[in-house]
Amino acid sequence: xxxxxxxxxxxxxxxxxxxxxxxxxxxxxxxxxxxxxxxxxxxxxxxxxxxxxxxxxxxxxxxxxxxxxxxxxxxxxxxxxxxxxxxxxxxxxxxxxxxxxxxxxxxxxxxxxxxxxxxxxxxxxxxxxxxxxxxxxxxxxxxxxxx
Length: 147
Prior knowledge:
Layout: E1 8-9, H1 11-20, H2 25-28, H3 31-41, E2 56-57, H4 61-81, H5 91-96, H6 98-103, H7 111-118, H8 128-137
């Protein structure tokens, strides 16, 4: 993952490591999940280095792997709800996915109101970042993953 052996990973190096080191081509295509995991892990360790907040440091690498696993699972959920494959979830898609969401551990009493809560930017569509933040708060869990 660290081709420069400098103890720091950029987003591009993480991306390349997923493809070339882990050889997980299907995960390499999940850019939103990789980006979220990178953002969540970078800067967790309060380094005195000027590079620390913008890169993954060696001490944060294990946390990056944990976040990658979590965000890949969330991306899989998001992709199942996003039936139009446009990387956005409409209200109709969200309403149609209620059985799936229930199988992930959440029975929503008022799906339309919940959609409005998830749509944090008020754009009328739920983006992956909004879905992921909501799913984490609601402790959603794929029924067929191998925790």
